[in-house]
Amino acid sequence: SPPLMRLNEENNTWHLLQTNDDLNGSPQDYRRPLETWKLTGSVQSQVSPESVFSEMHGFGLKNPATVFTWVAVPATGFHRTVLPNETWAQPEILSETSTATLAQTFLAPRRTAKL
Question: Any idea of the CA torsion for 55, 61, 36, 16, to the nearest 10 degrees?
Answer without folding.
Answer: 80
